[in-house]
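Before the break, one more example. Copy the sequence into your notebook; we will annotate it together after we see the structure.
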Amino acid sequence: MTKINILLPLYNDWRSCNFLIRKINKELKKRSRYANIIILNDFSTQKIDINNKNLKNISKIKVLTSKKNLGSQKIISLGLEYIKNKRNEIIVVMDSDGEDDVLQLNFLIDNALEKKDLVIVASRIRRRENIIFKIFYKAHLLITYFFTFNWISFGNYSSFHTKNVRKILKNNDSWLAYSSCIIKNCKILKIDTERKKRFYDKSKLSFFGLFKHSIRVLSVFQKIIFYNSLIYISFLFVFKKIGIISFYSLLFLIFIILFFNFLILFIKKITFKDFIEKKNTFIKKIINIK
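Here is what the structure looks like once it is written out:
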């Protein structure tokens, strides 16, 4: 039987994580499957608190703790580095707060087992945030598509054969944004899923956090965006020549596009500033819970 490893990025949400692990155990039991859980502890300020009782379909639980708070994308990258030498196994990445639909877990695993050359991603067909957040998220999707021609409507929830791990990690873009890295480096298969409510508490992601994440997603495609921006600017000159836009509108739009490119480059450099060290130097300790 193919081994299954489930990576759960976490920051101060042990209550939700415990509840999720029990739901994972329940889903695995339906198909007589067993999995290892690797909790990617992003330097939580709360004490590690994992209840490992009566988890018959969870073979092992490990907690990998980073030396400092890195953010979900970087801690996922660390987790992939940690398991990159595994062979002929299935990897699942999912958020630990309950927003990823655990009822789709076996379906994602089935597809990863059948389609070993693909990364199976959970595309969010319905979200439960407030209307303003949904509008900003839709704007993020449209801007990303406009500059990259990629519709990245999925997050961390994914499943794949270990043969894809080195593809994901090959150019270090996973340090910026996991979803962009996957769509850039791998062939994907989208599975429609509903984004669920968190088990407990409210989301820690603010509008500013969404903005920073959006820029990091775009920064993976920095070169492509730059070349596409030059094409769009050339179209603006054509529009000016035939009288569709005014001279001042031309200058304003060129300024916006160039500033947008500068912001992407700046965020990319800031994000990579701590990548001078090797990724494995960010691991503080590894605890075996089970």
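The mean pLDDT is 91. The beta strands are 3-10, 35-41, 58-66, 89-93, 118-126, 154-161, 187-194, 283-288. Try to locate both features in your own notes.
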